[in-house]
Structures are given as structure tokens and as C-alpha cells.
């Protein structure tokens, strides 16, 4: 039932004229089931608001989510309290068939640095409740900040137990480093390259994703998971994407399968549209011409500036045919780049302002250049050519330019393992890197995997290594950065237990990591 206030507010905003009342009535007659099956979320917070997200999908795995192909007005409300006693803002957003009936409501005019609660209403149906948070004002001096970091959530590899635990954390926001979906589909149980069994815990609906309907269905299936919905509803997110939102190890207009660029770009366009539809991001990130400008900054007063990078869209091809390989000439290609010129200038300009105590690069692929040899019979050093290690010239350029800031923390995903380590410019340490493991990708794992001891011995810059599933929480104060490595004991069955496996501390102004 609509309350009197909701009725008045929707009438006042009045998109009825825009859409045509008969269409709405007809459409509502066609809506036979509860439309908020995929939950709610919020993201891209600012000091005065955030984006509220939902998608109408009465039958999530049906074509078009079981929706009639007409625009639908959806009411939203933002409250000061979880019981919605005091409404801070309310309005209406249109769920359009062009965007899979997703809703992105950009809310402004709110107070800084505080929680809000929100919900959507369509006709007589009300969405689950979500909790969102605004950021502190740029001119403020927060004394502490706690946020989360996660990503790599292959549905087939395990349950989202880590996300259920993440939902219960008290966090200002969560940075997601991508691999929100995996585009591929496994035929059955597998085995990892290091010899560990990888059971097929649950199966993707459909085959590998290529068109918009495929990607939409994949996101819809992922969002039927209650643990993912709980984490999305509990926090405000800062989403990015990596490779599997589109296709394994893609960069720019190239995919790993060798599709011609013009053909791959059609796939990329479909995948990025689905990503936009499902993420709580601003209209500025709507893909245009098959591309989105996803690099952006979030600031937390004078405490932290977080620059979210896009390390896929503009990158030059992986050298030497990609993969894990010995050193090759392409690794020192002077024209190679990971970021676009514009993105790199933007990043350096932001980091050199010196207006925040900490600078954070929130990105996707490992920046440390590691020797990946796992066994003693491997004589030559092995590199991951899809990481920054394959791009020595831009890697060294970036690290040399941030030398002396002594307050840079790099946050990374992609590896499906936890790492803490030091980045140097060839002479001295210039930044620290924390690599967050995966939510589920790679299966249960174990504290150390086959070859981990050799990785440690061959890479003295690595201070911590762990192969379990989980997420990071970061506690930031003006003088100290603490990263908590949170791991679950298993993801092959539901209900795994969470523990804090390790803690890394960094003192501002002194590039080093102390583990405990
Ligand atoms: Fe991944
Ligand atoms: Ca990845």
C-alpha cells in the first residue's frame, strides 16, 4: 500500500505525463510477482549523497527478468533511521527496458559522514531495506576510517560465505576490484595448475557470455545468492571491473581468444552495458560508444584519497602472447602502457596534491613484479605477463614518480591469493601493496599452496602470502594504516567460519610493513 506521503511525493514529481498513465496501468497489470528479487545496493558515495540501485525482475532468470517491456516508475525513500521514522529524501526513478529495468537513483542534499537507510516501492510491493553511507566533507579531518576490499566471486567455485561475513562488518564503504561475475562456464570439476581439486560447487546458468542477454542473465543468477544480496544491501560500494566482467584477460580491443578487434568491441559493449546496469554507479559511467570512463576518485576528508584505476580499457597488449613466462623482449617495450596517458596524468596530479594523509591506488592487477617459479627445476624466472610485471616501462615510470610521497598504498585483486609486499623504484621502497584474495574463486584453498614457500624465498619484497578465500578490512588513521586479512575456512560448503589470519601495519612516512 502507498502511504499518503508516498502518494503525494510521486504525484508531485509526476513522470506520469512522461510515460503515459495507461502504459503504467497496463504494465502493472502484467506484473504478477514480486519485482525486487535481486535486492538493493548503494554506491559511489559523495559527502552529500550516493547512488541507490535496484532492478525489477519478478522472474530473475527469465528473459527480461519477467518484466513487461515498458518503463516503470519506482519510488525511493532515504531515511535517517532504520525504521524510516524520519525521511531525509524521497523521489522517483524510471526503470527502463533499455537498461534491463535497472534503477540508478542519484541522491543528493544529505548530511556528510553518516549512515542512511533506503528502500524502493513499486505499486504495492516494497524492496528490502538497504543501508548507505555518505562521505566526510573534503575539508574535514576524520581521525579514523574503516573500509572493506573484495572481489573475484566465481559462483561455480564456492559459496559467498565471505560476503555474508563482510555484510556484518561496520564499514564506511567497500572497494570491489572486479571479477564480480565470471563470463565462462566450467563443464565439471577441475584441477588447479598447482594440483588442487576444484569442485564445481554450483553451476552457471547458460554457456559462456557473449551478448547482452547472456551477461544480464549471469548477473541475475549471481544476485539470487542471499549472501551477495546481504553484502550489497549492508554497504555502499565503490565498484570497478577487471577481466571476467567481459572476457578472460581482455585489454583494450583485444581478447584472449583472438576475436578481431571490431568483433570483440561488440562483446565489450554488451558486457559493459550489463556491468553498468547492475552496479550502483553514477550516470557519468554509462557506457558511451562501447566504453565507460570508470577511473575516478573518492576522498575522505584530509585522511585518504582513493583513486580507482581502470587497468584494462586502455592497456597495450600483454607482451609475448600473455601467460606466465620467462623474461621476454616485450616486457621492456617503451611504448607499452597499462593506463591511458590521460588516466596516468590524472592519477599523478591527484597523488601529488599532498592534501591527504594517505594516497591509495585501488586497482586490479598486481603491481609487484614477482618471480613466479613454483619448483626448483624451473631455472629461469617466470613472470605473470597480465600483471604490471609484463609492463616494465610504465611500471617503473609510475613508481619513480610517486617516490618520496611515502604515503601510497596500492590495493589489488586478481591473484586469488592474499599478498602483502613492498614496491620499489629499483633503489628504495616507494609504496606498499596489499593484494586481496578472492571471495570464492579458486575454491577452499589452504594457508599456503604448492610452491608458496618458493615464492617467498624468491621474492623478499613479499611479507605475507596466503591462499584462503576472504576479504580485507583497512583501518586508516592519520599516522597508521592497518590491513586485516580476513579468511574463511571453506567455501565448498555453506557456513564457513571467518578468522583474522594476519594484520599488516604501515606507519605513514615510513614505507614498510610490519606483520602480526
Ligand atoms: Fe578473478
Ligand atoms: Ca581477474
What's the SSE blueprint?
Elements (H helix, E strand, L loop, with lengths): L3 H10 L2 H4 L1 H10 L9 E7 L2 E7 L16 E8 L7 E9 L6 E6 L7 E8 L2 E2 L3 E4 L11 E6 L10 H7 L6 E3 L13 E2 L5 E2 L13 H12 L2 H9 L1 E4 L21 H18 L17 E5 L3 E5 L15 E3 L14 H11 L6 E5 L19 E3 L7 H10 L6 E5 L5 E7 L4 E7 L9 E2 L5 H7 L3 E15 L3 E9 L9 E10 L2 E6 L1
Parallel strand pairs: 1-13, 9-10, 10-13, 15-17, 17-19, 19-21
Antiparallel strand pairs: 1-2, 2-5, 3-4, 3-6, 6-7, 6-8, 9-23, 11-12, 14-15, 16-18, 20-21, 20-23, 22-23, 23-24, 24-25, 25-26
Helix pairs in contact: 4-6, 5-7
The chain binds fe (iii) ion and calcium ion (CA).
Fe (iii) ion (FE) binds next to loops.
Characterize the structure shown.
The protein has 516 residues and is an alpha+beta fold. The protein has two domains: 4-133, Immunoglobulin-like (Sandwich); 145-515, Alkaline phosphatase D (PhoD) (Purple Acid Phosphatase, chain A, domain 2), CATH 3.60.21.70. Helices cover 19% and strands 29% of the residues. The chain has ten helices and 26 strands. It has helices at 4-13, 16-19, 21-30, 161-167, 212-223, 226-234, 261-278, 341-351, 392-401, 452-458; strands spanning 40-46, 49-55, 72-79, 87-95, 102-107, 115-122, 125-126, 130-133, 145-150, 174-176, 190-191, 197-198, 236-239, 296-300, 304-308, 324-326, 358-362, 382-384, 408-412, 418-424, 429-435, 445-446, 462-476, 480-488, 498-507, 510-515. The strands form four sheets. It has a 17-stranded mixed β-sheet that branches. Helix 4 (161-167) runs parallel beside helix 6 and helix 5 (212-223) runs parallel beside helix 7. The longest helix is centred in the middle third of the chain and has 18 residues, at 261-278. It starts with a helix and ends with a strand. Bound molecules: fe (iii) ion and calcium ion. Calcium ion (CA) binds at residues 179, 242-244, 414. Calcium ion binds next to loops.
